[in-house]
Design goal:
alpha/beta; Spore Coat Polysaccharide Biosynthesis Protein SpsA, Chain A; 2 domains; eight-stranded mixed beta sheet; three-stranded antiparallel beta sheet; about 20% strand; globular
Length: about 425
């Protein structure tokens, strides 16, 4: 350990991060080794550049932004059956898998545990995980197949997630046969001076690297290889917090296959021109998503000849990829974005700091930043009330919260 410690001291001195060893002697041997391993695996050049970039404005006003074409699922008429039949054949042939991104905790909901274990208040008291699983199993039975389910956890919630599934006998799925778990990557958090934080456990304080880390996590954890062994060609990727997510959609699959694209995404029309959501667009001729903060009021309010918003297709994290596209995206580094967050940490005197306002940066990649890697993609507009009921905020927020999601869920299933 002493040789490794000498190497660690040298690295920390080079990057002016010597404080990371301030509490080293108070740790037990296991944690000492963990901290050493953490430090030796940090890309300090990357962290330093990310910190420097927090001071810059990333908005590139020179980008050429244009509206993006889309298909409205419920205005396809005779094409609907055409696309649906193509998708149905692919699903029946076992070509589809589902991926759920479930690395978050339910802290904002007042829930002590992984967000996927949260009960939104239905009479059944089913968790988000079980609601999603019910949907997958129902669709699998419809097509005579089991839809393989891949669940991305985080280091923070992986153990609890596995315990939850084991307790519930994996809701009828067979572990390592048709349900698989993998952990997303993390990056150290830094303070406003660029110093890497030490958490309450005496180790490097890290945060998940955002939903853009999904591609690399699938590749590096061997999940894409597993998919190919199962003869899977298409993968639906969505979040755990949308209790109405439709992971098995033959129309979406049919569109992707017929249009010969490797990415197909669902959208919902913006509730109003200034709704704070990212919308699909063409950026410098390539598919992309533009954040609400990047477009002018004039662009947000612009309409076409039919009175439809030119920039009205919201990205709702409901995306279908070919396995080949995921593998390609998993080997191409995405840009990281900084988020200013509240973070507890141990200061250089060994005291616990509990902030009441943001005090640290976390770095995350966005899934849609990879869209520019493809020449074209398909967008399918769906109905908000049928496919989008996210649980992101506590009930007092009044929007995208348990009560709104519960209402949408109950209304949808009462009319089925």
């Amino acid at each position: 350990m002493e040789d490794a410690l000498d190497e660690v001291r040298s690295v920390l001195k080079k990057y002016n991060q010597e404080h990371l060893l301030n509490g080293f002697e108070k740790l037990d041997d296991k944690k000492k080794q963990t901290l050493i391993d953490q430090i030796l695996n940090i890309d300090f050049e990357l962290i330093n550049s990310l910190y420097i970039n927090t001071k810059n404005d990333f908005c590139n006003n020179n980008d050429k932004i244009e509206p993006m074409d889309y298909l409205d699922k419920y205005k396809l008429n005779e094409e609907y059956k055409y696309y649906e039949n193509i998708g149905k054949q692919a699903i029946k042939s076992g070509k589809l898998a589902a991926v759920t991104m479930a690395g978050g905790q339910g802290t904002r909901l007042g829930h002590d545990g992984p967000k996927g274990t949260y009960d939104i208040g239905l009479d059944s008291h089913k968790s988000l995980f079980e609601l999603l699983c019910d949907s997958l199993k129902e669709e699998g039975q419809k097509y005579g197949v089991t839809i393989p389910w891949f669940i991305m956890t985080s280091r923070e919630n992986n153990e609890e997630t596995l315990e939850f599934f084991e307790k519930n006998k994996f809701f009828g799925y067979k572990k390592d046969k048709d349900i698989f778990f993998f952990i997303q990557s993390e990056l150290p958090m830094v303070d406003t001076e660029g110093k890497i934080l030490i958490g309450e456990d005496g180790l490097i304080k890290q945060a998940a690297d955002g939903h853009g880390g999904i591609y690399e996590a699938l590749v590096n954890n061997g999940m894409t290889e597993k998919m190919k062994q199962l003869n899977i060609e298409w993968v639906f990727i969505g979040g755990v917090d949308n209790c109405l997510v439709k992971m098995v959609d033959p129309v979406l699959m049919g569109v992707a296959i017929d249009k010969k694209v490797t990415v197909a995404c669902k959208s919902i029309v913006k509730a109003n021109p200034h709704e704070k959501v990212g919308v699909f667009c063409k950026r410098n001729g390539k598919p992309g998503v533009i954040e609400y903060s990047e477009i002018t009021d004039e662009m947000a309010e612009a309409v076409d000849d039919n009175g439809e918003l030119l920039y009205g297709e919201s990205h709702i994290l409901c995306n279908l990829f070919s396995v080949e596209a995921i593998e390609r995206m998993g080997t191409t580094p995405l840009p990281y974005h900084s988020a200013y967050k509240k973070a507890k940490y141990i200061d250089k005197e060994g005291n616990l700091v509990v902030p009441d306002s943001p005090n640290a940066y976390k770095f995350e990649a966005f899934l849609f930043d990879a869209f520019g890697e493809v020449d074209d993609m398909a967008i399918l507009r769906v109905k908000r009330e049928e496919e989008f009921a996210p649980v992101k905020n506590a009930d007092d927020a009044g929007v995208d919260c348990p009560s709104t999601a519960r209402k949408l869920y109950q209304e949808f299933y009462s009319t089925k």
